[in-house]
Amino acid sequence: MFSEQELTQTPLLKIWVPWMSSSLSQRRGSSRPQFTNCPTMIVMVGLPARGKTYISKKLTRYLNWIGVPTQVFNLGQYRRDAVQTYKNYEFFRPDNEEAMKIRRACASSAIKDIDNYFAKEQGQVAVFDATNTTRERRGVIISLAKEKGYKVFFIESICDDPEIIEANIMQVKLSSPDYENYDKEEALVDFLKRIDCYKISYVALDEEKDRHLSFIKIFNVGSRYLVNRVQDHMQSRIVYYLMNIHVTPRSIFLSRHGESELNLLGRIGGDSGLSSQGLKYAGALSEFIRGQSIKDLKVWTSHMRRTIQTAEALGVPYEQWKALNEIDAGVCEEMTYEEIQATNPEEFALRDQDKYRYRYPKGESYEDLVHRLEPVIMELERQENVLVICHQAVMRCLLAYFLDKSADDLPYLKCPLHTVLKLTPLAYGCKVESFYLNIQAVNTHRDKPTNVNIARKPEEALRTVPEHL
Amino acid sequence: MSVIENNTEQCGNSLTRELTQNPLKKIWVPSSKNGLPERHISQRKVCMTNCPTLIVTVGLPARGKTYISKKLTRYLNWIDVPTKEFNVGQYRRECVKIYKSFEFFRPDNEEGLKIRKQCALAALNDVRQFLTDEGGQVAVFDATNTTRERRETIIRFAEQNGFKVFFVESVCEDPDVIAENIVQVKLGSPDYTHCNTEEAVADFMKRIKCYENSYQPLDEELDRDLSFIKIIDVGRRYLVNRVQDHIQSRIVYYLMNIHITPRSIYLCRHGESDLNVKGRIGGDSGLSARGKQFADALGQFIQSQNISDLKVWTSQMKRTIQTAEAVGVTYEQWKALNEIDAGVCEELMYEEIQLKFPLEFALRDQDKYRYRYPKGESYEDLVQRLEPVIMELERQENVLVICHQAVMRCLLAYFLDKTAEELPYLKCPLHTVLKLTPVAYGCKVESVCLKVEAVNTHRDRPTNVDVSRQAEEALLTVPDHQ
């Protein structure tokens, strides 16, 4: 029966919810469709130096960015905490009873932390990063998960290319705390012996014997995949992501459009053209790019005039993505912060209270932006050298993905005009180089003011507004 | 300080060409000397390669190759990748008018083999024409292609023509699935019009046998340099090898999300809204009294359908949520299901749009699919934003989607394989529920009108779409309102 139940719009997210709460209101008021009701354990499988930690960290970063609370539980870390000093590979010998005891204890400890993460910390996905190379160990994990009602998804990385393995070891193992006191050759030799310790008892996931499990087997860094029994939306997304990432060296260049006419006036949004300084930047950007001698560079812009004008100066073909358009400020489009304070002081305060989730009336939130940028990120993962010419809020979202910034940090990341960021994947993360191209521009960065209360005075609200004409 | 107008960029930088905004799609493009937009710039389309793709199905008869071919083709066309399927069985039927029996397919039937090879070549020829001369991006070559030799021929053909090749193999040994297949799509085939059910099934099983001996499935080792996906047991397991590019990655993702579990998808709009009554577009108003009645009727209808595990989705606009509230089950809100953004025309009546923006109004009638409202969206944009919804609909089973007119048209066009030209004019009246049930190679549609009066919001394309037309001509097809 349609009751007199009225709807009210939540002031921050601008979501319509029933005025009175009812038994049905559990999943209401969320700005994104919820697909999971039960936590998922992702269990890595594979010999050492097969990229398990690389995959764990990258996947975790991606899931957190799209709003799925995820955490890595790295067994090696637990072992290092338990056994303060690493001597040598003998610790990992299958006949080392003492060590086996410790390693089993570490595994239990990690699993206990996972339980806690799900039960007490609202985690949705836990990535159990360990070799998990025996059917027995995997069996233990499966029963524990079953008891608690977690879904389990295995990710196995298989690689027998000695070059890739050695490169791995050079990139991430030699600098591990385990090998602080070793020189390079000794470390390499020891690590290879460590791998041998696991090889004897390694039982890979099997198409037949493990046909009831949900898993993906990744062969040779992605040239082949075997996917078995994908259970739900989350696992499907994970598989899609894993199938799109690669390890070929490349760089991603992020930049905003050149300074625009509206930037000069301190107005947000809109679709104005470049100012004369902005045009100078476009030229400087072109020189910079040429100087970098980048092979096969792809250039992406938004559909807004200012990014396209900037790209034009490069003299190379570029693709326009609507998804790269600046955040839609709705009723506040083309206003100055002063005008927003004058006409919508409550909105202005709400935004300062939770800048990530705040949605402009008839506009978007940073959270919405991340959602719309997801296909851009997916394609960036597939590509090699790319220059993305975009906007302040958009660049913050993309940067947060690459640098693993939280939702709280994201809306305050510094992305000044006329500065190019060069991101190069390195080891488990991303190297950032910042290039200011020496063309003057206004500052468009507004810090969070001290007073975010709705009752604050205009001066308090406007204290951090950057200067403009 | 004035804002620089269009087309008159003053600068010391001669590298920046002037930009003009294409009036239909509102895309900024550089203009050439005579002020007309150049074709140089590419819009973000799915297929960024210049290289067409040939998808080649592989598998014994009754393994779902044609089902996959048709579904994949429908999906790719919907996301604007011009795709066409070429079913060799169709070519064979045109060549050999009457099908006698499975003997045609016996491996020792020289005559039969000759004809079948000719048909395959004829189909490949048409593929070449489609991809090279007709602007096609993807061709789906739907045949058994069960021998390595046949596949080699195709690979050579593709190399000669500069096409990429991607194999989609379906492997299934579950006799129940195969039997169901045969019942669903083979018995109704032109081949078996003159047979009764038992005869047809017996013949078809013998037909499958003809292929079994020479069947060489794609092999992890032997075929490791090829790009392919092996689908095992209707999606229980997949083997994916050497995905080359974006389009193949999307194809793999799609194939891994579809299923054949019987289910129904219910599409309807929100109940009549206050703005609907006033003949105004867009906005975020609540339901009118009749709209609320519809919401109740919808609740009752859904209950009567006794649907197992129904998921309900709405947009984030008040009118769909109010409607869902009456259904009385948990629902998910998708921002992606929000109505098309009419930009500067939000909350206007058609009469007002004609008055304030007669040029825009005419452009929209000229190409309603690609037309983007100033500071708003186009149907083309809508399809792009609805793609994740479609993907999730494919994963799900029973779903009720409560959405909006333009959104519903886009979703319907996907399920019923409508073109971009037809899409914006599909009839999606208020207070009517469409029940879509996959059947054979397509979708059965049942339309249920819930007998609560509502305004008509459907505006047909007027005869005169010229920008110089009279106001009356523009407004001829506007539906009545208060």
TrEMBL record, chain A:
CDD domains: HP_PGM_like. It comes from the Eukaryota. In the C-terminal section; belongs to the phosphoglycerate mutase family. Gene3D superfamilies: P-loop containing nucleotide triphosphate hydrolases, Phosphoglycerate mutase-like. GO terms for cellular component: 6-phosphofructo-2-kinase/fructose-2,6-biphosphatase complex. Substrate binds at residues 256-263, 306. One of its GO terms (biological process) is fructose metabolic process. This is 6-phosphofructo-2-kinase domain-containing protein.
From TrEMBL, chain B:
In the C-terminal section; belongs to the phosphoglycerate mutase family. This is 6-phosphofructo-2-kinase domain-containing protein. GO terms for cellular component: cytosol. Transmembrane segments: none annotated. The keyword Cytoplasm does not apply. One of its GO terms (molecular function) is fructose-2,6-bisphosphate 2-phosphatase activity. It comes from the Eukaryota. Keywords: ATP-binding, Hydrolase, Kinase, Multifunctional enzyme, Nucleotide-binding, Phosphoprotein, Transferase. Substrate binds at residues 269-276, 319. One of its GO terms (biological process) is fructose 2,6-bisphosphate metabolic process. Residues 48-262 form the 6-phosphofructo-2-kinase domain. Signal peptide: none annotated. The active site is at residues 270, 339.
